[in-house]
């Protein structure tokens, strides 16, 4: 069995590697050769922790396994990351455990890749202004990945606590782009692409604030009850997702579906666009919305890429179990 420790991941894999791995597995899902298994997510009743696992199998790449982990709110006070995860890969021919891979950085990279893939396929080609809602840990990854998809000229951002926006300003400076903190009216009026990445349980962005032709990637809502945008905005958009079953239960679409503003059958898996089975955006006026909930197959895809790189670069730790 191969072990790739968390500390090795950053030097092994690039955001571009993760983008390709996730793009390929989204297409495999659309071809129905890859599927996610039911998600387990439970409050432990200990340490205020939420624990669970996401698993699946891709018959094209033979990636089989699970990501196990969750959220331990007391970790920060111990100098640890609150979100903790580990990815296990199994040999699809024998069921033997093939690898154990640190999953913290990979979760950030695969989530950023998903929104960037949606931007590649769904944003208008002439998009110039990128809007960010949310300035937590994940926001910097989302911003960096999105900047590679269109020649954005400037970035506007909003966060409930404005002092956190310096994180986004720093990334903008890295890329030589201007950054401005704005209110939500200006953000919606100016941004051609909007990424939401917060832990909100109430709508932040209203339908009336978004202009025609905008592409939104709603990435923060990954649990029942969370919400980042008004249900009316989801209803007004052409909705794409990583997986329909997951987005209608724990994604941004859960509210619009519950209010019968959106039918689950009208939601398109982004893999269909990647695989050339759906045209994606059909006009410059259309609002497109990607509801990215985060599926286990994304984790398996990026972990498989890491294992291959670790073996090639001789940094994989091999043990007998
Ligand atoms: P974080 O704790 O570092 O940052 C949280 C962000 O949400 C901050 O910008 C904070 O100001 C904002 N926020 C919190 N409560 C809010 C509220 N009530 N209203 C408005 N804004 C609020 O978290 P992070 O690591 O940046 O992750 C952000 C969210 O993304 C989390 O909720 C996480 O569960 C989710 N996430 C989703 C995926 C996916 O695949 N879809 C993957 C990773 C993380």
From TrEMBL:
Classification via InterPro entries: BhcD-like, NAD(P)-bd_dom_sf, ODC_Mu_crystall, ODC_N
One Pfam family, please name it: OCD_Mu_crystall
**In this entry, which stretches build a coiled coil?**
none
Q: Which Gene3D superfamilies does the record associate with it?
A: NAD(P)-binding Rossmann-like Domain (3.40.50.720), ornithine cyclodeaminase, domain 1 (3.30.1780.10)
Q: Which family does it belong to?
A: Belongs to the ornithine cyclodeaminase/mu-crystallin family.
PANTHER family per record = KETIMINE REDUCTASE MU-CRYSTALLIN
Q: What is this protein's record name?
A: Delta(1)-pyrroline-2-carboxylate reductase
**Native source organism of the sequence:** Methylobacterium crusticola
């Amino acid at each position: 069995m191969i072990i790739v420790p968390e500390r090795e991941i950053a030097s092994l894999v690039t955001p571009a590697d993760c983008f390709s791995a996730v793009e390929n597995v989204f297409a495999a899902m659309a071809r129905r050769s890859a599927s996610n298994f039911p998600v387990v997510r439970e409050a432990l009743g200990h340490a205020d922790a939420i624990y669970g696992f996401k698993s699946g199998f891709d018959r094209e790449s033979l990636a089989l396994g699970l990501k196990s982990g969750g959220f331990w709110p007391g970790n920060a006070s111990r100098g640890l990351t609150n979100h903790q995860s580990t990815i296990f890969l199994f040999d699809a021919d024998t069921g033997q455990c093939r690898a154990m891979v640190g999953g913290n950085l990979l979760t950030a990279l695969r989530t950023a890749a998903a929104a960037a893939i949606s931007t590649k396929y769904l944003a208008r080609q002439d998009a110039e202004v990128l809007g960010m809602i949310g300035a937590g840990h994940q926001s910097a990854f989302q911003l960096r990945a999105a900047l590679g998809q269109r020649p954005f000229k400037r970035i506007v951002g909003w966060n409930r606590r404005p002092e956190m926006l310096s994180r986004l300003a720093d990334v903008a400076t890295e890329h030589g782009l201007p950054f401005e903190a704005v209110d939500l009216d200006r953000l919606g009026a100016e941004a051609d692409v909007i990424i939401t990445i917060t832990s909100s349980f109430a709508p932040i962005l209203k339908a009336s604030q978004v202009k025609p032709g905008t592409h939104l990637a709603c990435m923060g809502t990954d649990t029942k009850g969370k919400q980042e945008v008004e249900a009316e905005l989801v209803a007004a958009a052409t909705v794409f997702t990583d997986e329909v079953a997951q987005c209608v239960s724990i994604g941004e679409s859960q509210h619009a579906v519950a209010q019968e503003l959106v039918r689950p059958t009208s939601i398109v898996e982004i893999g269909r666009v990647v695989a050339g089975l759906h045209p994606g955006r059909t006009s410059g006026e259309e609002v497109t919305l990607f509801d990215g909930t985060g599926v286990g197959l994304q984790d398996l895809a990026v972990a498989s890429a890491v294992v291959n790189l670790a073996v090639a670069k001789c940094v994989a730790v091999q043990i007998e179990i």
